[in-house]
Specification:
By secondary structure, the chain is an alpha/beta fold. It has a single domain, classed as 3-Layer(aba) Sandwich (Rossmann fold). About 35% of the residues lie in helices and about 25% in strands. The chain has six helices and eight strands; from the N terminus they run βββαβααβαββαβα. The protein has an eight-stranded mixed sheet, sandwiched between helices. A hairpin with a 2-residue loop joins strand 1 and strand 2. Helix 3 crosses helix 4. It is globular. It starts with 14 loop residues before the first strand and ends with a helix.
Length: about 250
């Protein structure tokens, strides 16, 4: 899995399909990517989308992770793979979920269980990662004490109404955030560090100078939201950091 860069293959041989699962009477439709040529059990990774719903950004990252040797599930957090028609609509959906942390955690845990049901996944080697709202969601499943090997947040909000309790967090945590992110200011980052220190969690935080919110998404500026901006250098550095983190937690 070494040398797993962000460059995409023009002739991808990944098998991609919709994985349907349910929670509380709602059907969710994730995007499952895996390499059918690999026959051994592989680490599984959940990829959680931004506020706009399950779109191309999360799906492409799932397919790239499959190329790197993982079974990757781009998660649907809103149900029926809904995508927001506007920034305001997407933000209203995420605000509603973030206001109900038990529901948010239950939905990502349902995706985790769905991934565990894939025959190629090694249940002892599963991680969650996400972008913006997805990063927040990944941190929340770690706070819940779910038995994941690790979680990664890319420019996700680090605030919560349900802080981690001491010795509950089982997953190792990697946070990749931008120094110029107006939605995740330095005080919030320090608050997260203090929270995880009190919880005695295994965590690390990487701050990228000059990076704003949504720095991993090349189409971030198209949303027309001030403070969203792609940063190629930070994106590539964060991908490399994630890859090394996965090598550590998965023992590869």
């Amino acid at each position: 899995m070494s040398g797993c860069t962000l460059k995409y293959s023009q002739m991808s041989k990944m098998k991609c399909e919709t994985l349907a699962y349910s929670h509380a009477g709602i059907t969710f439709r994730g995007h499952l990517a895996q390499d059918p040529a690999r026959t051994s059990r592989l680490p599984g990774v959940l990829i959680v989308h931004e506020a706009w719903g399950l779109g191309e950004h999360a799906k492409q990252r799932a397919e790239k992770l499959a190329e790197c040797g993982y079974v990757a599930l781009a998660v649907d957090m809103f149900g029926e793979a809904r995508q927001a028609s506007s920034s305001d609509e997407g933000l209203s959906w995420t605000r509603a979920l973030r206001a109900d942390v038990p529901l948010l955690r239950a939905r990502i845990y349902a995706a985790y269980q769905a991934l565990l049901g894939c025959p190629q996944v090694d249940p002892a080697r599963v991680a969650a990662m996400g972008y913006c709202f997805g990063g927040t969601t990944s941190i929340e499943i770690a706070r819940s004490g779910a038995p994941l090997a690790g979680v990664v947040s890319f420019h996700g909000s680090l605030a919560t109404t349900h802080p981690a309790e001491p010795d509950v967090v089982k997953a190792k945590i990697l946070v990749c955030t931008g120094a110029d992110d107006p939605f995740v200011p330095a005080a919030q980052v320090q608050g997260f560090i203090d929270e995880m220190t009190r919880a005695r969690a295994d965590f690390q935080v990487i701050i990228y100078g000059g990076a704003k919110h949504s720095f991993t998404n090349p189409r971030a500026a198209e949303r027309g939201v001030p403070g969203l901006e792609y940063n190629k250098s930070a994106d590539e550095r964060a991908w490399t950091a994630m890859h090394e983190f996965f090598r550590e937690i998965f023992g590869i």
